[in-house]
Amino acid sequence: MTEQLTPVEIGRDRARFDGALKAEGAAPYAYDYPVEDPLYLWTVDSTIAKGRVAAIDASAAEATDGVVLVLTHDNAVRVSGDDLEYAVLQDPAVRFRGQVVAAVVATTPEVARAAAESVVVRYDQEPHSVTVRAEDLYRPEKVNAGFPTDTDTGDLDAAMASAAVTVDEGYVTARTHASPVEPHTTVATWTDADGFLVFESSQSAHGFRRVFSDVFEVPAERVRVIAPFVGGGFGSKGMPHAGAVVAMMAARALPGRPVKYAHTRRQMFRLVGYRPRAEQRVRLAADADGTLLGVGVDVVQESSVVKEYAEQSAMPARTMYAAPHRRTSHRLAALDVPVPSWMRAPGEAPGMFALESAMDELAHECGIDPIELRVLNEPAVDPDTGLPHSSRYLVRCLRAGADLFGWYHRDPRVRSRRQGPWLVGHGVAASTYPAYRQPNNTALVRFADGRYQVEIAAADIGTGAWTALNQIAADALGVPVDEVDLAIGDSALPVASVAGGSSGTASWGTAIVTAARQFREKFGSHPAEDDEVRADVPAPTVAEEFATHAHGAQFAEVHVHEDTGEIRVPRLYGVFDAGQVINPRTARSQLVGGMVMGMSMALHEDSVMDPALGHTANPDLADYHIPVNADVCDLRAEWLGIPDHRLNPMGSKGIGEIGITGTAAAIANAAFHATGVRVRELPITLDKFLG
Amino acid sequence: MEADITLRVDGEERVVTVDTRTTLLDALRDRLGVTAPKKGCDHGQCGSCTVLVDGRREVSCLSLAVAKDGAEVVTAAGLVDADGPHPVQRAFVDNDALQCGFCTPGQVCSAVGVLAEAEAGWPSAVTAPGATPELTDAEIKERMSGNLCRCGAYPGIVAAVREVAG
Question: Choosing among A181, A595, A658, which should be mutated to test the B contact, i.e. which has the most B CBs within 10 A?
Fold first, then answer.
């Protein structure tokens, strides 16, 4: 049990403190910082997917007025480490289409772009492999976040052979891109005196600093990463990618000159990671009443030759439901494609589409309500670890959501309801995401000018950290929020973990509470000027004793046009167990935003690989669809509001990612209820209801 | 090739030398240091660069600065006056119509444009033929759909615009 904060500020509905700055256009994102005499970088990207750069003719670029540097693998600074993603411009090898093969730096962006376009690259092209083939599959040593690749308990095959009811189906999730509206941007300056100063689109100032320090072999204290405002991240800005390294190479070569580089929107589809396409075979074995005997998920996923990325898509099946026979696996194919990486709820987002679709299929087969099926298979302890849950309120979420949505009026028969030409269906799915707290967080509290300065290198990527951490600090110190000055988003501040894994508020908040308590113990309630405490937080141990997860339930109403197959989602409701909510207003936006992205995954997002050219054929926001305002109708997020005292002093669970989990299944399940057509491949487009 | 142009930006006359290839957005951001409008796509697809040009909303990445010589440009920063933020900006903050904030200056300018267009009786794709448009939720969603928000703040954006429209 963690000593809990007394909620005064936390739980209070407040407008976000950085809201006015943002609405007035005054919040500086990486590119916006005024720098003296900047240079602008434009890259030259490979037009083949595999082979070698045979020759680069940059003579026209070098002869262009205003060009100060052309970087190629011949003259770029050598970098360190074995991470091939960062080994850009190190050799002539081309490992995916769109890889940076040269860069031009000039005094204006127009000159840099035109000069880059004048660079002629000749290639020795080799045949590429960009689609998964069975013979290429291999077993990774582990999957993302360090989880085991495979699990096997009991005898799933025997359970499948003997069960009264089985489901054995394949589900496909599309390749999707985080696509924050702010393209990844680096503004880097090197000076011999101070090293690197980098304004960066980053979810982790310290994490980026560590990578840059390693890659450039510069001591960490000579690298400063500044990112107080970040225009969305959703995982893609959780770690540096190649573009930042290229910009810093240019800066390193041009001491004293800031180099500005913003990815183009097209580059956002190849240089900053993406959620890889995955196929999941789901097997469920059950008694006639729906009691699960076996659960199996086998994931096949694309990865890259540059760097392995194995999304932990089978993870939810390891923990969601009780069953004695369980087996999961992950297999990859390393392809000549851009490097995949984190995107919101890696593992849980695709995994919960497959598992929760299959659960709906099982409910249909057994002829029972899909909510009752889940209630029936609620585990007493975590099926994966055997540990008790720190708290688990899935059933309460399902019941509360059912009431909010009006679920119990539903006629369970498919194609049972219509409005004019529209077939109407209701669907439900569960949501889940682990409740993490990261080690290695330090906060500083200082008293100055009658106010409390609270410092930690946290990141606010739209999550509301500027507001929530201030509220936490106020309660931890027992003062009003307006006596707290928060500083985040700068690697010069005390170390903080990434804004990722929905762990930010729990991790940084715990550090702030620890520092504030030590401050009060040491200095009492009347500190002297400049009294300060810097507190490190020990690594959490709760996961040794308890399984820690957030849960939720999402309900969708779907309309499918009988003649055209057009699909609409007029209602989407979610009820979540997120522990103690720190700020209801910003929390609601987080959950709603996750659900919007879940709806987007269900209906819109589909990065189409062109097998001949080896690249995404729709790499912009006109062809790669994300929801616009008119796509979002009656969308509501609610929560139970029960603190989990075992997790952290706030009793909170992360909320950044859970909203995207289960959404696509709820929508697919509703579409099945409307039409009788089971769509097992995302996105759910109109063609899948026709023919 | 370079050209000298004059823009009135957020109420201030600015003379600036631009490359003839410079977009209005890049002229504002790179040449004049006016960073309220953002570059999200540079293709007119996301709406983050929306500003008011001679009173009408435009995506500033799709026009060349030289073609805007003499124009009056108002960015989100210029919507703040002596009385403080524009009512649309206040409503965005109150309704949490933003998260990361990157698309927000464009959303705000677009919303101001929407209010004026509806006031002037301009129909949208969802206005019934011949009807006088009123800013219902359906009208607001339709008219604000040129501004993408990846954080998914759309319900808040609709609430904010509805609040100001009255």
Answer: A181
